[in-house]
């Protein structure tokens, strides 16, 4: 395998270090970083070879049960990259950074978001959970602070008092979410990655990310489901 045989250069190492320290990196930033690392290390650079460059790193990360994964922002459809630890299942990745009570609040927030119609949970609903936690009750003021930290650390995103899962969280926890919410978690019919904020076909139940819905129906004369061909009843964003 040519990729396995490819040497891990200083450029690869530098790229990996920055990605790990960022937590998550937007696609255009990753492309700039790829160029910068190659030019600094004086190794071959081609603007369309980012995926190959990442594949080389991933082949060396494989024995360590780690991987650089690409995910799509549910807001605007842009690509993002994050380093995922495949050996850590569930929310264990977060266990070293947060207390048990904070993790319980996160799990309950995740429940609200994933089980919701639109992939969002209101701050009111989340804060109402604070005094129902099993670990111990949390004051609303405390819970507000914890939510703020989850947003800063890019596990949650917040817009006008509504919370959803950050792209980083979706990339890192995709497998956990798909196996723990089997009845409700679905992959986007277009890009095949986990869809939290999505529209769902009323006839056959497939889901699509909002940016994917926009892109897909732009090329269609009338909005019909890509799977069952029934009329798409949701408003096209």
Automatic annotation (TrEMBL):
It is found in: Chromosome, Telomere; Nucleus. InterPro entries: Nse1, Nse1_RING_C4HC3-type, WH-like_DNA-bd_sf, Znf_RING, Znf_RING/FYVE/PHD. GO terms for molecular function: ubiquitin protein ligase activity; zinc ion binding. Belongs to the NSE1 family. It comes from Oriolus oriolus. One of its GO terms (biological process) is double-strand break repair via homologous recombination. This is Non-structural maintenance of chromosomes element 1 homolog. PROSITE patterns: ZF_RING_2. Its EC number is 2.3.2.27. It is an enzyme of class 2 (transferase).
